[in-house]
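WARN retry 2 of 3 for item q-0093 after timeout on previous attempt; input resubmitted unchanged.
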Amino acid sequence: GSNNANALLLRRSCEVWMDLATEMNQDFTALGIKRLLPRFLHFFVNPRVNRLYKLASYSVRDVQYAVFNRHYTIAQLLNDGCPKCPEGPEPDPILRRVKAVFNHPIGDYAVQPRVATMAAQGITMAHYMEGASYIPS
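OK item q-0093 returned
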């Protein structure tokens, strides 16, 4: 019943979050390519770069709220904007843990989710998704 529906919704939100990191990584690649291209060819990559700028303007906390609490898709974030997360801690203990797991890369750039940009989060998550790791000596 409702437990299965909640589990499916949570899984879909997790997939959107991971897809967002992948998409942002591709958008950063487009930004790098744009810097190499002559200006008259920028139109090839401008749509991806513009997506990056829009998504990068949001905080990690707000995007997590949009994806996990409001069930936004990437298209909704781009078209409708990102809702502001209410103040205070996440009331749902399951979502609090899931968000904490997905926030692990934030430690790499030492800021809180409320001020961390999705640009830093997305590129760092994508880096880990591609096999990066940290092994202390």
